[in-house]
Design brief:
It holds the Pfam family Vps26. This is Vacuolar protein sorting-associated protein 26B-B. Belongs to the VPS26 family. The chain contains 1 helix and 18 strands. Strands 3, 4, 7, 8 and 9 form a 5-stranded antiparallel β-sheet that branches. It is elongated, with a radius of gyration of 31 Å.
Length: 288
């Protein structure tokens, strides 16, 4: 992370030093005392002295800083990174300017990614089994699965699949707040299924504003994603099953593209291309 600070002054200005900082913090919107800082790096751009009138350029380079969390702006919490420049002055108020950055944190593919198999039903009335090929997906992945109807004695009207995000905020000693948002909802079946029928599911995640899952090592908030499978019968009663999935951000630089191999034929100058061999006698002979 590198850049440059431009200082433009109309007249000479004395200062006690110029400092640039990289700051990462998180805060709850409803609690001002909850702000906590998890990243802070700083170094001096200029020693105390005097800035001449005109434009001065001060380059900086933080290298590869440790940013454990992504930038996030939710319903009740915000995670942000800023570059803060301070021109320190003793007799007058210091000059402070901030520039917010949006940070993405790339993850490695999960070492273990098991499939999901679950059952839901009502005794002697409804028995459904559904499975998904994976439990962890990158943000532009495709959810592939199937729904199996093993017992159907309830007049099903339609079935839908919804993707929801649940954001929980609050310190351990305080009251927690949970905000649930439905990001997408699709009808995957219309009409009554029959015994033994299976319905394929294919859900593309690339078109929705998703973030990675946050729930490990963070005390102030968590963000989780769920798949909700909902069935509605003829009397508008709802039968649903909820399953949590884990989302992670894939590094686009590590995506390998399969290249098609091409065969190149080089001809010598002046030599005609070779003609195909004449067909054999057995191949050219027709029926008598």
């Amino acid at each position: 992370m590198s850049g440059a600070v431009t200082v433009d002054t109309a007249r000479p200005m004395e200062h006690n030093g110029i400092v640039v900082e990289l700051v990462g913090d998180m805060a709850l919107f409803y609690d001002r005392d909850s702000r906590s800082q998890f990243v802070h790096e700083a170094y001096a751009l200029a020693d105390p002295g005097e800035l001449a009138a005109g434009v001065a350029l001060f380059p900086f380079d933080f290298g590869v800083p440790h940013c454990p969390l992504e930038s996030y702006a939710g319903a009740n919490v915000r995670v942000r990174y800023v570059i803060r420049v301070t021109i320190v002055r003793s007799l007058m108020q210091s000059v402070v300017h901030e520039q917010e950055l949006w940070v993405h944190v790339y993850n490695k593919p999960p070492a273990i990614n098991n499939s999901i198999k679950m059952e839901v039903g009502i005794e002697e009335s409804l028995h459904i089994e559904f499975e998904y090929s994976s439990s962890k997906y990158h943000l532009r992945d495709v959810i592939v699965g199937k729904v199996f109807f093993l017992l159907v004695r309830v007049p099903i009207k339609f079935m839908e699949l919804a993707l929801t995000r649940s954001e929980s905020t609050g310190l351990p000693q305080a009251q927690a707040y949970t905000d649930t948002q439905t990001l997408a909802k699709f009808e995957i079946m219309d009409g009554a299924p029959v015994h033994g029928e299976s319905v394929p599911v294919r859900f593309f995640l690339g078109g929705f504003p998703l973030t990675p899952t946050y729930h490990e090592g963070i005390k102030i908030f968590s963000v989780r994603y769920y798949l909700n499978l909902v069935l509605v019968d003829a009397t508008d009663r709802r039968y649903y099953k909820q399953q949590e999935i884990v989302l992670w951000r894939r590094d686009p630089r590590r995506i390998t593209r399969t290249r098609t191999r091409r065969t190149r034929v080089r001809l010598r100058p002046g030599s005609p291309p070779s003609s195909p061999p004449p067909p054999s006698e057995s191949a050219s002979s027709g029926r008598a």
